[in-house]
Amino acid sequence: MISWKGVFPAVTTQFRQDQSLDLEATARHIEALIDSRVTGLVMLGSLGENTALEPEEKRRVMELAIKTSHGRVPVLSGVAECSTAAACRYAREMEKLGADGLMVLPAMVYKADPRETIAHFRAVARSSGLPILVYNNPISYGVDITPEMFAELSDEKTLVAIKESAGNTRRITDLFNAVGNRYAIFSGVDDLILESVLLGAVGWIAGVGLAFPRENQYLWELATAGKWEEALKIYRWFTPLLHLDIPVKFVQYIKLAIQECGLGSEWVRAPRLPLAGPEREQILTIIRHGIATRPKIPG
After folding, report:
1. Of all helices (H) and strands (E), which one includes residue 33?
2. CA angle 189, 45, 293 (to 5 degrees)
3. Domain enclosing residue 137, as ranges
4. What value does the mean pLDDT of the chain take?
5. What is the pLDDT of residues 41-61, one digit of tens each?
6. Closest CA to 33 of 7, 4, 13, 57
7. pLDDT per position as a tens digit, 172-223
8. Could you write out the DSSP letters of every residue in 162-212?
9. Residue 21 belongs to domain with CATH number
10. pTM for this structure?
11. Are 121 and 153 in contact (CB under 8 A)?
């Protein structure tokens, strides 16, 4: 049973320099995240480079995550397939494998219209008994699941939560006005998290927190306890780092931060390439300043 609140980091898939899976490094990172008191784990999302993995690799990553977590926190799998049939098939496979839930994206590549998008999510919702976090990110994927569409989907019992990444905090209030408390609202935009909590978000699909898990968790705990002044101090330190979650190369940026913090490596799978030249130096400057000025966290 998933408690749909708290920090669910979108865990990276760790690779070796030759782009092969590094399951041992992925397991070590999962342990560090659980040790920071996260509430759940989302594997194979955008940060997990889902679409760059082969089907068998996805199963191996999920088997590892389920085994490593060993019931301490729920483990969700991203579902990012190019067809509805493939997404339904994958959802059934994850249920058999022992995943606790799914984070479902619209079908990849094709930009579905609202009728098609609703049909896709209805089909995936009915393909297994797993609870689903619906990932809405029109900026990255070109498909917008509006509050009105969520209202239409509200009769699907397995659709229980929303990762809202439209980049517009007005959406949170619009969702509450459209569907009340029907869904648990998670923020999927790192540098809008404090504002999102104020507006009613109960969860955070964190990105940059993969490199700074203790600070990330502390910020969440301050915000959800209503300790706004203390939270704001952490947030202002954290925000230049949180901005790294937004650009197209957010996977490379966050993996480089993870490497600089000693929690993994920067290796990504092509077509992504590790950062180079002035861009790399610019991102390293931000990361290293964040490390040098990181606040002291109690406990």
Report:
1. helix 23-35
2. 45
3. 6-292
4. 97
5. 999 999 999 999 999 999 999
6. 7
7. 999 999 999 999 999 999 999 999 999 999 999 999 999 999 999 999 999 9
8. EEE-SS-THHHHHHHHHHTTSSEEEE--GGGHHHHHHHT--EE--SGGGTS
9. 3.20.20.70
10. 0.97
11. yes
